[in-house]
Amino acid sequence: MRLSRYFLPVLKETPAEAQIVSHRYMLRAGMIKQASAGIYSWLPMGFKVLRKIENIIHEEQQRAGHIPMLMPTIQSADLWRESGRYDAYGAEMLRITDRHDREMLFTPTAEELITDIFRANVSSYRDLPLTMYQIQWKFRDEIRPRFGVMRGREFLMKDGYNFDLTKEDALHAYNRHLVSYLRTYERMGLQAIPMRADSGPIGGDDTHEFLVLAETGESEVFYDSQITDLKFGDREIDYDSREQCQAVLEEFTSRYARTDETHDEAVFNQVPEERRRVARGIEVGQIFYFGTKYSEPLGATVADADGNQVPVHMGSHGIGVSRLLGAIIEASHDDKGIIWPEGVTPFHCGIVNLKTGDAEADAACEKIHAALIALGLDPLYDDTTERAGAKFATMDLIGLPWRITVGPRGLKNGVVELTSRRTGESEEMPPEAAVAKIA
Ligand code: ATP
Ligand code: MG
Ligand code: MG
Ligand code: MG
């Protein structure tokens, strides 16, 4: 991509309304623009990162055996009356009346609708287990939308739902989600710690939230510092194996880690004092097992092996897809801008032409640009006539992992400069070597 043909409306000034670093950088890097309170347009570079995050989630969900689908954003109030949540949900639900005076709503979550799909189509235990998920826009009329995409009113969520015959089967689905979420967040360069949480309006007994530690997080968290040493890494996992999934759950939840909602001072005090941590975190996901909370009122039953009609055991599992952009930036930045982890970076590499218009520099940049594309990479070539200082500032702000700097002086010696955004280290080398190092 040539910057001269792209749409990257970088802001020089720090927007006054942005209180936290991720919000500031997302605005300054031209990733989002507020349309109204808590509602954003996703400008090309923000949209690119959003898509990368979605792709990782799709890959990891499907690896775990979960099936993608899509449900509408606007739903009828009727189903929500059947479950009893239409009144219970309160002011966070955006209620809409259509021209025929039918009561509709913008989905804040989708347990009711998926259960309706299930009950209309599944009648035998033989069709279980079943887990389906979607990545779809949600709306919650948050009382205080703030921090940009962190607490939006319209936001993108991955929500998955499992249907199982027994509690044990549903707990296996719960564990599968826990494992797949660990993998998902790690691929985004994040450490998200599963913490015992409160179930809120979703309901249920078993629930963990995934928290990214950050000073700007809205949740207070209490944990045993040993938990931050745990990594899922690239270990193999058989998602059909109950033992393997259960073992991961035990490993990642056996140390004290709770949010303020479930924090228990007496239990926390049993952790050796030097390992006790009180900090703040950003909730980037939550998994729930809630049994028959929706299947009973909505009549989602199947015939079991003896022919008895039994309500299915369910759970739901959410990831804050758009919030993740904010969480990743909170976890990975410096005073010059964003530092994208490789897994979600909008472009793999920036190419800075120090002297656009110089025939040799132009030709060398074009060659590097083409070589990176030929390798399947996605470079951003700054071919504008801005001065070098401004080009560097933009590259630092948008935080691509690598920058190749090309100028007439280096080219005389046959070299360009390759700079790592994370370490700030630069090295001179021939253009081909720089391309090879990035690939
Ligand atoms: P919070 O405690 O932050 O209000 P929640 O517990 O109400 O979130 P869930 O119902 O668990 O949210 O939804 C699943 C995920 O969706 C959350 O873990 C979070 O990452 C994301 N999410 C929830 N509300 C918002 C929001 N207003 N803006 C952006 N992401 C959100
Ligand atoms: Mg909420
Ligand atoms: Mg919450
Ligand atoms: Mg939650």
Give an account of the 3D structure:
The protein has 439 residues and is an alpha+beta fold. 32% of the residues lie in helices and 28% in strands. The chain contains 14 helices and 23 strands. The chain has helices spanning 21-28, 44-63, 77-83, 85-88, 111-121, 167-187, 242-253, 265-268, 295-298, 321-331, 359-374, 388-398, 408-412, 431-438, and strands at residues 32-36, 39-42, 67-68, 74-76, 94-97, 103-106, 130-139, 154-164, 192-196, 206-213, 219-224, 257-259, 276-291, 301-303, 309-311, 313-320, 333-334, 337-338, 349-353, 379-382, 402-406, 416-420, 426-429. Strands 3, 7, 8, 9, 10, 11, 12, 13 and 16 form a 9-stranded mixed β-sheet that branches. The chain has a 5-stranded mixed β-sheet with strand order 20-19-21-22-23, with helices on both faces. Helix 2 (44-63) packs across helix 6 and helix 11 runs parallel beside helix 14. The radius of gyration is 24 Å and the shape is globular. Adenosine-5'-triphosphate (ATP) binds at residues 109, 140, 142, 151-152, 155, 157, 200, 202, 283-286, 318, 320, 322-323. One magnesium ion (MG) is lined by residues 209, 283, 286.
